[in-house]
């Protein structure tokens, strides 16, 4: 029998909904901070199987989520393509600012050997994960990965990226095509190693105009879903085009993904009308409500559960857990969601 998380992602509702949390591994956990200090460098943490396995299991061991997301980062893909990457202390990721001539140097042949430690971590996780928790693999969507490469790191408005899309559409199209192929390879390797579902994080999808959104967010997702679906028809794909708002329905239709992630600003009831069943919905408690805890969190959880009752729904946050979040609030949240099932 399929694990609960996987069966809901494939479109079968379950009550109470299965739950996992974006960025469930990370700095809010003292055991993660200790592991991170032991690894020294963030890339070492992601590419040393023992360490990546431990980071993946820490939150599941402590809280018993229904999903374990592989500990890695969306920027491991450009790194594996031979593109420079470092994580500056307190600054986040730093990459070279992409010039059009860099695109030809992205080396798809490097991917498989460079991603071998990730494969190894997944294979070990399938043995080490007990119970009903499903292993989730992931990648950054091509557009969001391109944002980090073109901006050279994080950005507020992604103006360089959007300027390239308008001024040098052929180069931009070519970059996204290379990243789309690389993403298909990376996710295929993860599934072959044992990932039971995969998620495509398009964190900056919401900065695009509707026409560019169709071209550079929805179309690459469609290509990725089609390629994975041919090889692995049983493996659900979750698409998360963050801040896509009213375009979520268009995204679901064009991409053909099995589940759509809702960010914090998305209304679950409106989205349920926009995205046709059996496509599952995932989300979307405000990470700040989790940080705050108490009555405000309880009310928000009830509102989300009520809006999506009867629908295939995976409970999650609307974005990643904040580092200042008290771990006790995470335990409280899980009890609330599971308790909803007992009360009904
Ligand atoms: O110093 C540290 O310990 C590093 C902090 C950290 C962590 C814990 C980074 C750097 N990445 C991660 C892990 C990570 N990143 C996971 C692991 C699994 C889990 O969810 O528990 C995942 C799925 C990601 C995905 C990711 N990385 C996204 C997509 C989701 C999102 O948050 O929008 C993005 C945009 C990144 C880039 C990135 N990596 C790290 C940081 C600080 C950032 C954001 C940079 C920025 O734009 O400000």
Structural class: alpha/beta
Task: Give the helix tally.
Answer: 16
Shape: globular
User: Largest sheet, if any?
Assistant: 7 strands, parallel
Percentage of residues in strands: 5-15%
Q: What is the correct CATH architecture?
A: Alpha-Beta Barrel
CATH-assigned fold name: TIM Barrel
How far apart are the termini?
A: 24 Å
Instruction: Tell me how many strands there are.
Output: 9
Q: Kindly state the mean pLDDT as a whole number?
A: 96
- Return Rg in Å: 19 Å
| Bound molecule kinds, no repeats | coproporphyrinogen I
Q: Briefly, what CATH class?
A: Alpha Beta
Molecular structure report:
- The protein has 344 residues and is α/β, with parallel strands linked by helices.
- It has helices at 4-9, 30-39, 42-47, 49-63, 76-80, 111-114, 116-128, 142-151, 159-167, 169-193, 210-231, 248-255, 268-274, 287-292, 294-308, 327-343, and strands spanning 67-69, 86-88, 92-94, 134-140, 197-202, 237-241, 259-261, 280-285, 313-317.
- The strands form 2 sheets. It has a 7-stranded parallel beta sheet with strand order 1-4-5-6-7-8-9. A two-stranded antiparallel sheet has the order 2-3.
- Bound molecules: coproporphyrinogen I.
- Coproporphyrinogen I binds next to strand 3.
